[in-house]
Amino acid sequence: MREAKTTRRYADKLVGLTRRNDTPVWVLAHVEVQGDPQSDFAERMFTYNYKIRDAYQVPVASLAVLADTKRSFRPNSYRTALWDCRVQFDFPMVKLLDYTTPERWAELEASDNVFALVVMAQIRAKVTNDAETLKRWKFRLMRLMYERGYERTLIEELFRLIDWMIRLPEELEAEFRQELYAYEEQFQMPYVTTVERAGIEKGKTLGMQQGEATILMRQFARKFGTDSAETYRPRIESAEPEQLEAWSERILSADSPETIFH
User: Fold this and answer.
1) pLDDT in tens, 52-82
2) Burial class (CB in 10 A: 0-12, 13-18, 19+), 124
3) Low-confidence winner among 17-21, 104-108, 178-182 (lowest mean pLDDT)
4) Where are the domains of the chain?
5) Alpha-carbon span 137 to 179, nearest angstrom
6) For residue 171, what are the CA distances in angstroms to 126, 184, 198, 203?
7) Which InterPro entries does UniProt cross-reference here (predicted)?
8) CB atoms closer than 10 angstroms to residue 169
9) What does 216-252 look like in DSSP terms, one character per residue?
10) Which segments within 133-177 are labelled E, that is strand?
């Protein structure tokens, strides 16, 4: 909202739900995933809730998923008051760290909800310090996908997500992929393996990044000169495609190189 005094706010996920019967009533479910402890998180949940409600004029359910590793960080309400005017906002909260207990972890492993694997990957990435142990967990999660008989496209999507969550040192990553190659061969798959497809996707992303960087360098040289473009080359060539796209738009109205990268 242009007239808002606060900065721009982004909701992680805003989903409209419809009832199974013909009742013309609908609600909005706002899911906020928080990866790090923040002192103002409860207030931010309240802000999201009332702004979403104000925009759509329907009930809003705000749900918090806490993915951090600080056990004491458990915000589930926001309160404020001035004289006899009070605001009380309570919201449901799930702490992923609670699922590290044997009982709760068993619930995740037994669940047929595909998102349970994502939760397991996130938890292990957060709480496991030993790289060898993390590699074994990464392989175990991949094996669960095959054992549950997921479709190929779903396995590929889950692999990309888990691969992004669970980062391994280069040597261990190579070992993990070799083990996964051997495991996939047992299924005699007549197509490119999961890790090969992941490599192809990574290559596409890299090609996109290089193309965006080249275009921005040309724009930079034309507007501010070749010497100025060379000064900023390292920053441009190491940026992600989304960032390069934003800079390419800013350069059209920029008065100086500094205004592009603010």
Assistant:
1) 999 888 889 999 999 898 999 999 999 999 9
2) buried
3) 17-21
4) 13-97, 101-191, 211-260
5) 13
6) 20, 20, 17, 20
7) DUF4351
8) 12
9) HHHHHHHHH-HHHHHHTHHHHHTS-HHHHHHHHHHTT
10) none
